[in-house]
Amino acid sequence: MTQDKRNYIQAVSSKTLLELIQNLLINSGIDSLIRISDNQIEATIEAGVAGTFKNVYCMLAEPLSKNYSGMNPLSEEIDRRFKNGCSKFYLVSNHSISTGFRVKLEQTTIHKNSIVYWDTDDLLKNIEKNYPDYWRHNDQSLITYEKYFENRINESFEIKKLVEYKAAYQKLLSIFIEPNIFLKTDDKQSTKKAFTKVNLERVLIENERLMVLHGDPGTGKTRLLYEIGRLFIRQNSVIAGKRHLPIFIDSVNLRDAISQDGKINMSEMISGLITKDYFDGRDLKVIIKEYQIILLVDSIDEFEDKYQKDIVSKLEEMMDEGAIVFIGSRSNILDELFKSSLRLCCMNPA
Question: How far apart are CA 346 and CA 178, in angstroms?
């Protein structure tokens, strides 16, 4: 993902780079900005008793090496800005800025100690700190839902932390530690089943229709389902085609889907989870056409056999419409209920 971001930043135009820096500055609390040229922004900072400072941000959307052809004009521009009251001159490139370039530039100006360099790595750090939404796509309905999904993860595990752990450990528990995951594959050379250890990214790649995540209580199946949804959300900013729409379904949601006559209203329940407050109330069939639905289903084991079969049947119908399903399970019985599945064992926490 980091390499994707790096490639994206390096491909932006001079105009886009200027707009990015402007938004970064605004998000960092600097809102007194003036565009003073096609590639420069002047930021005025009021620092109380320390006075007023003026910083200039100069954007050059190209790699900067010691052989840069515009070295002399750039040096003259820097000196001119400092004569006009500039406090610091930020030289921003969405590519690399070589040591040779810095040395050569600083040999041509007396203001070398007041020049700040931002290259690709610095831009990425500033974006993560002050403008994380920059990486999101432009589908505002989906963005709103994605934030809800991510907040639900945080709130869910905040409650567990309050109940189970002392405050001293809460920060550690906010970090997701990937469990040991093993993908079951058929060994054609024997009747035994082979298990291959995989990472979470591999889990997403391997599942084209259905994947069952097996594990004993406490091995992290619920958290793993949430993190799978989070990974799909992160992919939305870089993929082409349908974007992912992860939907977490727990035992409470499944019980709500059971009508008084014992029937499972899966589509109605899923529609209620996403269209009541999101996507402008669009019909579920429309949502399915517009997005790649990812169903993250937890705690089917808690239901009687009859309901398990009915739930599985409804999930099969959703898969036939294009949904991809991940299920957290404590037992192997679901393997027999589905037509086919790839099987994962969440053996123990890492």
Answer: 10
In this structure, the answer to whether residues 205 and 121 fall within a common structural domain is no
Per the structure, the complete domain to which residue 104 belongs is given by: 2-135
Number of domains in the chain: 2
Residues of the chain with pLDDT under 50: 159, 161-165, 167-168, 171-172, 349-350
Cα separation, 311 vs 37, whole angstroms: 62
Output the domain CATH number for residue 128: 3.40.1350
